[in-house]
Amino acid sequence: MRTTRSGAPFTIIGENIHATRTVLRSGRHVAALPGGRDAIRFETPEGERYLTIPDALRESGDFAAGRVKHIQAALMAILRGSESDASDARAYIETLARRQVAAGADWIDLNVDEVAQDTSTQQAAMRLLVQIIEALGPVPPSLDSSDASVILAGLEASADSWRLLLNSASVERLDVLEMAASARCAVVASAAGESGLPSGVEDRLANAQRIVELAHARGVAVETMYVDPLVLPVAVDPEAGAQFLEAVSRIRAALGPRIHITGGLSNVSFGLPDRRLLNDVFIDLAVEAGADSGIVDPVGSDLARVFGRARSSRPYKLATDMLTGADPYGMEFISAFRAGELAGEA
After folding, report:
1. Class for domain 164-338, per CATH?
2. What is the DSSP string of 262-306?
3. Among 52, 268, 326, 344, which residue carries the largest CB count within 10 Å?
């Protein structure tokens, strides 16, 4: 756990062990092994190791486009690879998890939705990840999936299910609330509605209040609920950031200080340059609005840096204008980025 500018606790749901995550083939993380095979290079306390990229991924469109889904590679190696490949893959996942723990993660969010098309493989992958993360000890898993049966598979594989976070329940996914109530564990309560994503602040507030009421009715303790008003990219909708921030403020006022408010805060910057600056500023703005948690990468979004940024600086103000819709589609922000005016600000 880390603290905000005011010294209040900020709960981190570390987000980087997802089968969607990629690294560049041309980047420093990928190396060519003798014999021409590509591998993910990583450091462990014992020294440098390599995770060989499975042939199935080498034949994928992502690989052809210059990207490697490294978590998917690790899971495929454990599920289908040789004993040696599986050992390297486990060490790779453990290395990523330890970095999250060292950076202050309170949970480590696990998502396997893209590891395979079939549900049974996704369930097997989730069970494996839960066992790997729990064996490390200090920080429990957060189970994240669009399929409730995959969340259930992880829940059933857990040796300490009361420590888990289930991500997420909504008015259209009440079965996840039932799981949280039964396990007496924490749950992300999404502001998604019965017909999908909310359309504005009022929808977010109404859906959040409704899912919290439904959770209360099932005996879920308010202190274990993490309301997610849902962050959308400002590159798609210039008002998305402002709507999220207002929703956070309204939910905090309506539901009080005991409930937690979180969100996938890095979603706001998809498709934009200088995502680190934008993510840092948005985390700070979300906390100011009333959030006390975030689904973030604590390695990439170091909270000492986030809450140490000078709010009076030009980069901070440009980022704020873009994130709150004062600079629609970020024309001024992007111009400043291209002119090198944002470089080095912290």
Report:
1. alpha beta
2. ---GGGGGTT-S-HHHHHHHHHHHHHHHT--EEEE-TTTS-HHHH
3. 268
